[in-house]
């Protein structure tokens, strides 16, 4: 089954109608909107956190807010921008909490040793996901919103509730860090004895 999309004028009009019906308590409209967004949000979030339980919690929290706050949507932005704005705020808080717990418990995932280049698209995406996990939360989210979901800097600024220049700065620094991180994934990982020297690179930590 083809994955549903939420981009385009026709889809935006349909989603605005669904949100209006949700505001009136229409559960079928809510189920339809949930179907339209769940898979993409889940994939977007799991690429960022690599914790399926955290991603699913964020998705559920996002749609709970959509259900409760549908009446507040005035159509000033695209429905996708409004929904992703909610998901962004939920994800930011959840990822920071997850990172603090990982730091407290010293649960730092080690990359497997390898001296090979990725052999297929899925492996490359996995390596990219591992590199993304090393970025601060705000940079991770900006990169995924831009390159995975295809939003413009202006749309991302609305989603993140920050100036456009802040989005551009986050993307600039994220690209620089990824350019340094990705080649490292193609070289052998140092011995575990050196892990302590890398323990400061906890996913979600601010630069």
Characterization of the model:
The protein has 207 residues and is an all-alpha fold. It has a single domain, classed as Winged helix-like DNA-binding domain superfamily/Winged helix DNA-binding domain (Arc Repressor Mutant, subunit A). Helices cover 66% and strands 0% of the residues. α1 packs across α2 and α7 packs across α8. It is globular and about 50 Å long.
Quick rundown:
The chain has eight helices and no strands. It is mainly alpha-helical. The longest helix is centred in the middle third of the chain and has 27 residues, at 79-105.
Give the tags.
207 residues; mainly alpha; Arc Repressor Mutant, subunit A; 8 helices; 0% strand; disordered C terminus
């Amino acid at each position: 089954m083809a994955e549903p999309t939420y981009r385009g004028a026709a889809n935006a009009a349909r989603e605005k109608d669904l949100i209006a019906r949700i505001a009136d308590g229409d559960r079928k409209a809510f189920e339809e909107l949930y179907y339209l967004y769940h898979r993409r949000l889940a994939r977007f979030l799991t690429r960022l956190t690599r914790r399926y339980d955290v991603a699913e919690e964020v998705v559920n929290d996002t749609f709970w807010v959509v259900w409760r706050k549908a009446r507040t949507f005035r159509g000033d932005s695209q429905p996708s921008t409004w929904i992703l704005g909610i998901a962004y705020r939920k994800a930011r808080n959840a990822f920071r909490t997850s990172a603090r717990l990982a730091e407290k418990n010293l649960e730092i995932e080690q990359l497997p040793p390898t001296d090979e280049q990725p052999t297929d698209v899925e492996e490359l995406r996995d390596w990219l996901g591992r590199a993304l996990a090393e970025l601060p939360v705000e940079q991770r989210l900006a990169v995924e919103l831009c390159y995975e979901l295809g939003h413009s800097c202006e749309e991302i600024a609305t989603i993140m509730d920050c100036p456009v220049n802040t989005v551009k700065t986050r993307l600039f620094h994220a690209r620089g860090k990824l350019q340094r991180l990705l080649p490292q994934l193609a070289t052998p990982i140092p011995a575990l004895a050196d892990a302590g020297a890398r323990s400061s690179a906890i996913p979600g930590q601010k630069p």
